[in-house]
Specification:
Layout lengths: L1 H24 L8 E7 L5 E15 L2 E12 L6 E10 L2 E5 L6 H4 L6 E7 L1 E5 L7 E2 L2 E9 L2 E10 L2 E2 L1
Antiparallel strand pairs: 1-2, 2-3, 3-4, 4-5, 5-7, 6-9, 8-11, 9-10
């Protein structure tokens, strides 16, 4: 019986470690965490300030999902831009949906006839990044239509990502 219990322990140990990967791997995946990025020009004057705050964390099976609110202001602290988007942690890697770059309010136009559709892949950041490592590509496609007329079709690629 002792050997049987020991074997079960060995089998279950990786599963508990896997479940904790995302919770303990990144300090960023905690409610209330704020990151601030300040952009400067050549004369060291502030150009823009961008803040990201984790407003909530939810657990969906083996995936943690952080709801992140990003706020950006210009050099005068004006023209605020705000967007809330999800980031996922799955099997120790962070995934950002490229479609979340376009906030829902930007997708709504003044006229109901204009339809915007956005599709794409997740941008992945592995938990065990090493210098020189190549990261997977990501892409996003956005199209705008007015009735049967296609007004715009844009593709954005994130390629050749290296740590």
């Amino acid at each position: 019986m002792n050997r049987f219990s020991f074997l079960w322990l060995l089998l279950l140990l990786p599963l508990t470690a896997f479940a904790q990967d995302c919770a303990t791997m990144y300090d960023f995946f905690q409610e209330g965490v704020k990151l601030e990025y300040t952009s400067y020009n050549k004369k060291d004057k502030i150009q823009a300030v961008r803040t990201q705050e984790v407003v909530s964390i939810s657990n969906h099976g083996d995936t943690l999902i952080a709801s992140i609110t990003m706020t950006a202001v210009d050099k005068k602290g004006k023209n605020p831009y705000q967007n809330t988007f999800p980031m996922k942690c799955y099997k120790g890697s962070i995934y950002m949906d490229m479609r979340s770059i376009i906030p829902p309010t930007q997708n709504r136009q003044q006229t109901a006839d204009v339809q915007i559709s956005v599709s794409g892949t997740d941008q992945m950041f592995p938990g065990d990044m090493r210098v020189g490592q190549t990261l997977p590509d990501a892409e996003m496609e956005m199209s705008m239509e007015l009735g049967a007329l296609q007004l715009m079709n844009s593709k954005y690629f994130v390629k050749n990502r290296k740590v």
